[in-house]
Specification:
CATH class of the largest domain: Mainly Beta
Protein name: Copper-containing nitrite reductase
Family: Belongs to the multicopper oxidase family.
EC number: 1.7.2.1
Helix content: 10-25%
Strand order of the largest sheet: 3-13-5-4-7-9
Order of helices and strands: EHHEEHEEEEEEEHEEEHEEEEEEEEEE
Distance between the termini: 68 Å
Low-confidence stretches: 1-95
Cofactor: Cu(+); Cu(2+)
Mean pLDDT: 82
Largest sheet: 6 strands, mixed
CATH architecture of the largest domain: Sandwich
Number of strands: 23
Pfam family, one: Cu-oxidase_3
Bound molecules: copper (II) ion
Strand content: 25-35%
Amino acid sequence: MNRTERDASRGMPYNDAAEPPTTQEVSQEGGLTDDSLSISRRSLLAGSVGLTLGSLAVSQEASAQNAGGTVRVAEHGTRHVNRVGSLSQRLYSLPSVVADDVAHDPSVVPTSITRQESEIVRVDLETVEKEARLDERASFRFWTFNGTVPGPFVRVRVGDTVEVYLKNREDSWLMHNVDFHAATGPGGGAELTSCAPGEAKAFRFKAQNPGLYVYHCAVPPVAMHVANGMYGMILVEPEGGLPPVDREFYVMQGEIYTNEPFGSEGLLNEDYDKLLNERPEYFVLNGHVSALTDHYPMKANVGETVRIFFGNGGPNHVSSFHVIGEIFDRVYLNGSVTKPPQTDVQTVVVPAGGSAIVEIKLEVPGRYVLVDHSLSRVERGLAGWLDVEGKEAPDIFEPIAS
Ligand SMILES: [Cu+2]
């Protein structure tokens, strides 16, 4: 095997220097002031502790909680206002939330692999918890891989050995780890990479099965770690690679469970009961509302063929992935690349923790909208734009003068 270490997640738009000061703080003084928060935080910490007893150090916060100590979360639960609350709010727009942004630029995808031999590929993941924009006027404390949602897109070749180095940042509140669906072995590496804040661990796996696979944090309660943003994808290219296309995009669907209703303002709190009942307030593409519309609209030209690596982080809901105004010319169902793709498909079912690769040849200019065809989710934030420029094609699509 050729020992060349390559950063498979290169190009990820994470900048440590850009990390904002958090507006929340954890203190061991004082008492809990918010009931819903206390349920959520306690359950979550208990889950973390449960996984690690006897084998791993627990975080200072978790230790304090487990020992009957108290954790106070400053400002949490006190800053939100429902958008439809007052007349003045409806008449005069409020200043936008000043917050960091976790959205992963969908056009940042590592280039395809052309080499014929196997390599050892190094993947560096850092778990980062940070408050960031959720909506125009709301923020949320996301948990991420490398500061983005989804985490970095990892690209390897079948037969490669993938070495995963996971570090949990010092300022994290919680334990984190990573489960690679592309790995064969207990937990997909989750137990081998369980890190308390400040810890770092690594494992390696052989990428034996080509395809597009999800990875995610698997610290209990797993659904909460996933819902809060801890998911991404790895493409294991088949021998010879995927056929060339003009552009590739990386898009993942997720759910966010907030205590406050969709559209609230301020720093929103996670809601454990809604999570258990599978009732998200938000459905999003690439981390937050408008991440793939106002923030990172996808752009392409007439005549080009685009490929979308689409994943569903979930943690709970199946996606009916659809692009309004287009037909998928080719679909690698469930991210499986070992059989020829299906052709001419309108909507693709993508399970939670699953994926699909779709390809579209662009023929008519205009705006195409990525949705989950469970369309109520559009009203809860899920949409993305594919803006296509070029010459009109009246033989394919044109108005009729009346
Ligand atoms: Cu985690």
